[in-house]
Amino acid sequence: QNVAPTLTMLCAKTGLLFVPPAIDRRVVELRLTDNFIAAVRRRDFANMTSLVHLTLSRNTIGQVAAGAFADLRALRALHLDSNRLAEVRGDQLRGLGNLRHLILGNNQIRRVESAAFDAFLSTVEDLDLSYNNLEALPWEAVGQMVNLNTLTLDHNLIDHIAEGTFVQLHKLVRLDMTSNRLHKLPPDGLFLRSQGTGPKPPTPLTVSFGGNPLHCNCELLWLRRLTREDDLETCATPEHLTDRYFWSIPEEEFLCEPPLITRQAGGRALVVEGQAVSLRCRAVGDPEPVVHWVAPDGRLLGNSSRTRVRWDGTLDVTITTLRDSGTFTCIASNAAGEATAPVEVCVVPLPLMAPPPAAP
Predict the structure, then answer these.
(1) Hey, where are the domains in the chain?
(2) Can you give the pTM of this predicted structure?
(3) For 257-348, CATH number?
């Protein structure tokens, strides 16, 4: 259909198996919904520099070629929802420097590369990734979307939000994280703003986190102290709060347990210079404690060519030196406090080898 003064092409439900090559390159709006297009090829939208709105919803698209949208410098809205995309790569959305709306909901997306949104970080206003299989997002990139109005991530498998992600998103009016796998929410100015607190006047903001397996301990106490009731329906853990409505639980029941070291190396470890030694340290608590080790000289130890701290708290020293003699300290810490345990290490120096006697 030619609708003056702009050119609009509507090709919905026409049985298309691919993007027609004869499309007028001057088209401003192109709708190819409800077809059977399986892939977007490199030249499908070449030279369409006037295209503003592109809709590819409800096809069977599983592949998007690198640079397929590179010529769409004027594009403001891209609808790719209800397809079969499994990932979003950094080269697929290259060139979309004017994009405002990116709709990728109801696909099979498991992974989004960190560079996937680079072309439109400062312009995008609406990002929809709902109903996918995402376990994580490039949160650093999301935090740079300063013009973002709506962020829709409901019905995914996301279990972590990086702290400080939303600090710069002052234009955000809707954040939907419903039905994910979040156990906790990091304190963020965004949530305070949604409750109308803070130095600035309140702005309309809807934050939805219902349907997540929240772990209701002291780390969520900041959220419980906010006055506005949200759709955070129930707590999943700990056991004594299971299935209880979040906002009905008294503050004093949001508890944490300080660390308790349950297993550690014996009080003294004897090792010959140059050999390896492993120092065990395990701790329990709520939230799960993080274990650090401090060397005899007071240095905080990390992973290096000579030392490694394992996930279970064990410290491996692969090559001991005489400087390792002394007290190593295991420190287990969480939001409720910390516990320490000393381990004495004695490094036995290698005997000096005497030179062989001179031959007569």
Answers:
(1) 257-348
(2) 0.79
(3) 2.60.40.10
